[in-house]
TrEMBL record:
Gene3D superfamilies: 3.40.50.360. It holds the Pfam family FMN_red. Keywords: Oxidoreductase. It is an enzyme of class 1 (oxidoreductase). It comes from Corynebacterium provencense. Residues 5-154 form the NADPH-dependent FMN reductase-like domain. This is Chromate reductase. It comes from the Bacteria.
Length: 189
């Protein structure tokens, strides 16, 4: 049975570079892996009242339940994120928070994770990746080690059809995806 990989894009814009990078990465997974984007655009803002058993007049949104179940049924999660104001975008932090509750059933717990960050500048989303790693460290999620993936000047990576054309970058991404796939295989939930 194929390993189920949820890919979470930290940008809501349909034509975002993060989405293009995610689509490229999906194509690099080895046989035996089914990687697909899990949309986060319609997740309501996190509110603990939804998960507080003492609050009875605010039922948990169906979007929370579906998202949490999707993540819990995953064998791994690959985050592809831009950098916004030196951190992760609000939509991605919201998704992390939603998956972190309820405390008795955290969707992220021990789930193998990979992170690809990018920016239009030269730093490649360094700050966003480090902030995301910090948030995920709380959930005991295994992550690939070095080299990490920081894609700088991301607009220059794509041709007019939206494909990454720099072969060195494709090879670097392939290596990371393959290392992440081995991490998933070595860390079943």
């Amino acid at each position: 049975m194929a390993k189920n990989i949820s890919v979470i894009v930290g940008s809501l814009r349909r034509g975002s570079y993060a989405r293009k990078i995610a689509e490229e990465a999906i194509g690099l997974f080895p046989d035996g892996f089914d990687a697909h984007i899990v949309e986060i655009r319609d997740l309501p803002l996190y509110d603990f009242d939804y998960d507080d058993p003492t609050v009875t007049d605010k039922p948990t949104p169906a979007e929370y339940v579906e998202f949490r179940n999707t993540i819990k049924s995953s064998d791994g999660v690959l985050f592809v994120t831009p950098e916004n104001n030196r951190t992760i975008p609000a939509c991605l932090k919201n998704a992390v928070d939603i998956g972190s509750k309820p405390n008795s059933d955290v969707a992220w717990k021990k789930l193998p994770a990979g992170i690809i960050s990018h920016s239009v500048g030269r730093m490649g989303g360094y700050s966003s990746q480090k902030n995301l790693r910090l948030a995920l460290s709380y959930f005991d999620m295994p992550l690939p080690g070095q080299p990490e993936v920081f894609l700088g000047q991301s607009p220059t990576l794509f041709d007019e059809s939206g494909k990454i054309t720099v072969e060195k970058t494709v090879a670097f991404l392939r290596d990371y995806v393959e290392r992440f796939a081995r991490l998933v295989e070595d860390n079943p939930r």
